[in-house]
């Protein structure tokens, strides 16, 4: 029973760590990353659809993203969706593609992205702490129901804390690595 609680906590923590890494892909570093467009949705015949499901999105070089819609009428819709998303660049429509030309990042932009990365890391840590609370509540319930002894509960609480500390340090390391990547010119 205790092992099930610990396994569940580890699985949830793994998901939180993956979510953090996915969030990091939306931050712009020195070179462009097509994942900066992941949150953009376009109106595709009346339903909101992710941009990458209506067009081919490619990073043609370190500072340019090229978006080729699968249907020509989508050009204007994609262009306006990107403009509305306010990602820091204006879309350029050449009749075939929408191109995004990213200027080199300033020191202030890099520092702002570092702040965002730290906030994302803190959000992941809150999630980890919530998983710890859920695991501790499960152990408390087992102890209250007399399914485990007080000594077993104490050992389980210690194990839950070890798991939490382990994942917290993984998050700190991920944030530190991202910070280094963001500040590298």
From TrEMBL:
Xref: NCBIfam families: frr
Pfam family, one: RRF
Name by which UniProt lists this protein: Ribosome-recycling factor
Described function: Responsible for the release of ribosomes from messenger RNA at the termination of protein biosynthesis. May increase the efficiency of translation by recycling ribosomes from one round of translation to another.
UniProt family annotation: Belongs to the RRF family.
Keywords, in A-Z order: Cytoplasm, Protein biosynthesis
Highest rank taxon of the organism: Bacteria
Keyword Protein biosynthesis applies: yes
Domain Ribosome recycling factor: 20-183
Main location: cytoplasm
Subcellular location field: Cytoplasm
Ranges for region Disordered: 120-141
């Amino acid at each position: 029973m205790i092992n099930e609680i610990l396994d569940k906590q580890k699985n949830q923590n793994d998901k939180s760590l993956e979510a953090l890494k996915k969030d990091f892909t939306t931050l712009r570093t020195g070179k462009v990353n097509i994942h900066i467009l992941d949150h953009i949705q376009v109106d595709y015949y009346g339903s909101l659809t992710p941009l990458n499901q209506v067009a081919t999105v490619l990073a043609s070089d370190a500072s340019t993203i090229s978006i080729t819609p699968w249907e020509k009428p989508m050009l204007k819709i994609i262009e306006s969706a990107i403009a509305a998303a306010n990602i820091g660049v204006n879309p350029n429509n050449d009749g075939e593609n929408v191109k995004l030309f990213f200027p080199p990042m300033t020191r202030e932009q890099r520092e702002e992205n570092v702040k965002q990365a730290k906030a994302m890391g803190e959000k992941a840590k809150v999630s980890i702490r919530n998983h710890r609370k859920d695991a501790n509540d499960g152990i408390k319930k087992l102890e209250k129901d007399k399914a485990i002894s007080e000594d077993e509960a104490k050992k389980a609480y210690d194990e839950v804390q070890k798991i939490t500390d382990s994942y917290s340090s993984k998050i700190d390391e991920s944030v530190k690595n991202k910070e280094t990547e963001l500040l590298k010119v």
